[in-house]
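In this supplementary section we document a worked example of the pipeline. Step one takes a protein sequence of length 141 as its only input; no multiple sequence alignment statistics are reported here. Step two produces a three-dimensional model, which step three serialises into structure tokens for compact storage. The input and output of this example are shown verbatim.
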Amino acid sequence: MDQCPFCHIDQIRTRVIQETPLALIILSNPRLMPGHILVIPKRHVEKPLDFTEAERKGIFDTVLAMQDKIMSVFSSGCDIRQNCRPFIPQSRVKVDHVHFHLQPREMEDELYHVSQIHEKQLWQDLTAEEMEKFFTLYRIA
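The serialised model returned by step three reads:
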């Protein structure tokens, strides 16, 4: 936590768009596209599973409200992303404090042309073996 940039946000240098009892909403810097924001829980947790029930509701409600705001004033679409990648060391673009990316999107925007257009090659139909394996692994008894 001592090294966590989200636990020690410089609110003078960082433009805090909104503060709720449970989260800060800031402009992502660096950003993937104009209008990219972060919803950051105030309490340091590294996985959403570690949220309390009140945090899950409050933070997810904030994420949805900000998605609605983005789509009503800025963009016709908005991706919500949360990454859990403990295998990557913390850096300027990877922080070990759970947070949600809200990324304004448009049809065939820059992100699409730079990377997502190539995802078409990665999509594959499930094999019967794969279906059985992951159905069994993920199923809650």
